């Protein structure tokens, strides 16, 4: 296991905060996306967490990755700027993603999934292995993984705590309660507010609950045959993930052939945001290897 202690250099962001909102219609459904970085090499497509819209992607990570490659971020069906109704299964989200990648004219892509996006990324890689060159799975776990179907019972009390303490629930859900964790949470939430104009609209309560059903179903479904994945895979998490328990990252690393594992100490579900400079460097090196 590759245990990593990273320096918390300041993460900065510029271009993602000004990226144009774009859309493409796939099978009659409008999908919102943003597209930045040089149009060279294999594009990197990102899939985000439960309830996330385009403005929930960390600008520091997007900008860092987009220095050397084309980076495409998107809203799931029924979320943010995308039309249609939010799917009730991860499998449908993956099917949408594969069709979106095709519609964008991309032959081969690298895929990065965070949390729910990591579930979707695994399913994309299993369903369309010829289309995915490299896979980055962060803060995520396998189908049927430990505690994934309990995410609602972990999340609701901390959403309530956020309301009562006038804090964004991500402070409690994504970060540890140490001084380091709290400082990183504040920096991350500041970065999410960088964009001032043409922000994406938040998820409706209905879409939020439908996605929770999809996550719960993923946690209860039979394990997938991850041994079939012959795609180079990088797995990253914090050592204290309460949303998708960190043991799931270790399980993924055992089950996906030759996967690389990075576990950040004193970091939670949002370990990649806490260590964004180090994560971007590791992701760049992995994608360029």
Automatic annotation (TrEMBL):
Keywords: Hydrolase. Residues 43-274 form the AB hydrolase-1 domain. GO terms for molecular function: hydrolase activity. It comes from the Bacteria. It holds the Pfam family Abhydrolase_1. Coiled coil: none annotated. InterPro entries: AB_hydrolase, AB_hydrolase_1, AB_hydrolase_fold. This is Alpha/beta hydrolase.
């Amino acid at each position: 296991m590759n245990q990593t202690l990273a320096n918390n250099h300041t993460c900065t962001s510029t271009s993602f905060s000004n990226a144009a909102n774009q859309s493409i219609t796939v099978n009659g459904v409008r999908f919102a996306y943003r597209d930045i970085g040089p149009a060279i090499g294999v594009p990197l497509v990102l899939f985000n967490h439960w309830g996330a819209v385009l403005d929930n992607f960390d600008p520091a990570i997007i900008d860092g990755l987009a220095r050397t490659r084309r980076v495409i971020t998107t809203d799931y069906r029924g979320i943010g700027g995308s039309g249609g109704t939010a799917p009730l299964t991860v499998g449908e989200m993956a099917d949408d993603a594969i069709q979106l990648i095709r519609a964008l004219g991309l032959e081969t892509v690298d895929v990065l999934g965070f949390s729910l996006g990591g579930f979707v990324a695994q399913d994309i890689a299993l369903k369309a292995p010829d289309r995915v060159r490299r896979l980055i799975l962060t803060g995520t776990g396998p189908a049927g993984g430990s505690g994934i179907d309990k995410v609602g019972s972990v999340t609701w009390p901390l959403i309530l705590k956020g309301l009562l303490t006038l804090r964004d629930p991500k402070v409690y859900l994504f970060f540890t309660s140490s001084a380091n964790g709290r400082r990183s949470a504040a920096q991350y939430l500041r970065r999410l507010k960088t964009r001032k104009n043409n922000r994406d609209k938040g998820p409706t309560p209905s879409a939020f609950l439908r996605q929770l059903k999809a996550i719960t179903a993923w946690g209860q479904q039979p394990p997938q045959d991850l041994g079939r994945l012959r795609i180079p895979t990088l797995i990253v998490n914090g050592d204290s993930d309460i949303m998708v328990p960190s043991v799931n990252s270790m399980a993924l690393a055992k089950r996906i052939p030759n996967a690389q594992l990075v576990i950040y100490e004193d970091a939670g579900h949002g370990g990649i945001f806490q260590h964004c400079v180090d994560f971007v460097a590791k992701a760049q090196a992995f994608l360029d290897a």
